[in-house]
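Sample 1 of the test manifest.
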Amino acid sequence: MGRAIVITSGKGGVGKTTATANLGTALAQLGYSVVLMDADIGLRNLDVVMGLENRIVFHLVDVVRGKCTLQKALIKDRRMDNLWLLPASQTDDKDAVTPDDMKRLVLELKNTHDFVLIDCPAGIEQGFKNAIAGADEAVVVATPEVSSIRDADRVVGLLAAADVPARLIVNRISQHLVKRGDMLSQADVIEILALEMLGAIPLDDQIVATTNKGIPAVLEGKSMAARELSRIAMRLAGYEVENAQPVGWFTRIGRALGLAATPA
Amino acid sequence: MSSSNALEFDDADPVPELVEETCADASMLDPEHVARISAALGDPVRPAALLRGTARGLEIVLDGRAGVDAIAAALNERLAEAPGFFRGSDVRVRVEDGPLAAGCLARLDEIASRFDLRVIELGAARNDSAPHEAVPSDNLAAGSAPSPAPEATPETVERGSDRVYAGSAAIPEGVTLTSEPYEAIVVDREVSPPANSNDDTSLDKLLVAPAAAAALDTLARANTELIDLEAEIEAQPEKTRVVVGPIRSGVILDHRGHVIVFGDVNPGAEVRAEGNIIVLGRLRGTAHAGIGREVGFILALRLEPQQLRIGRMVARAGDKDAASSEPEIARILSDSITVERYQGRLPRDLAASI
């Protein structure tokens, strides 16, 4: 039985979809069988970020309505054999499915895959309720901005009320802005949200470039953001990975002597 | 329609005369007369039971004129539509055109326990069209029968006597309203048990207090069934509520006694208490202490609130206030909310408010 993880944030535009695509791809790179599920019905994006939009024939709402089987709607990734996408419909709205539908769907996917990553729409309305219905755990994405943190805080409260344990990713953090005192640090974010931290993704131009190309950054490059996303994926899978602090020579020597990532 | 924050709804005032008429009759406490007037107000096809989400949580509105079975059936039906959704919720029960028929409370209890609901308040319906005005303290102080003064809403029809007493105990004589009253909070809330009357807030205790003598008289003439309902609710003494934080954005924590929070109160969250509020963490949201009273304090290890309210006073954080680095206490000093360093002991005038 696999794990269903919903990626959510409350506020829009903080990087949920990009995080979902990259974490899913990174988990697939680790050898797990992964399904990415786009729960943003009516405003689907995950297919674009994955570069799979022209392969969509059936989608999530078709499956719920019994127009096709779940297997038929799943799109296999171009690059990896163990990564799949269940696209959302672009024409229906959030009321087209119910939380019960989602629960059933997620359960079926969990039976055949190790991870089901659910890309949650922005907001806390029906779409949010649908997206978290089948989830075993949640990853909350927040950027170091007051508005994003406020929304994330609200979402964490709602997740707690629904008994979904949550962990945190801080996205688009810029160390030099933090140093200058112009940006909240990840410590500030954690202090307010009081959540376990999965990682802090640095602000990175390459993410923009790869996202527009439809290639998850973790496949492409060695960018800072891509490496942090890979580390977060490993943490999700249960590995203990040390933080990407700016490291001195002594630490590097330590790492070379075998203090690298070890399974939990 | 119903909202705890009546402040936003003050301008709606369509039928004030009707309301006052009802209230004038209420002072005579003639239930039949009240029922007749309510019927004359007319809303013939109202369901026997209604579920309503309000800013303060779930509210059940019962039609006092309906039979026990009709109410139970309607309530069952509504709750059964989404049984999981309501599970574990706190509900407030309002009775419109009460009193309820005999035996209704037992059914209500049974239904509540079946759906895992907790009834935290029970009372007569309030009419949102009633004028929300701050209650002048001298109107309440005497403990006389309710006057058809502006504070009289339909709520006072049945709860009037109780309200008079509670009010007179809660607002000390001689306390005058300040020039910046936080209107409607007092009016909008349920009857406040006097938090300074030692520890027991049960109705029995209330009635023994000497100031209640006049109220007792009025109460005796009120509908006995309703008193039973209230006694049952009031019999659960709630003095202090201890909560483990963080209290997150969007959450409203509302309690009739004191509140102690272990952890932070985040921006966008609100803690309301009729007693005092102590936050063993950062207070970054809004805190309202001493609701229905004019005394109380808010104490926090780090006091960085969006807004502080005590009784009817409001204070807003300054735009350039530095973050606090030590425990601070907010209280009312000479008609404004004052924040000062907490020196490890309660200022003398506040000790009485515990």
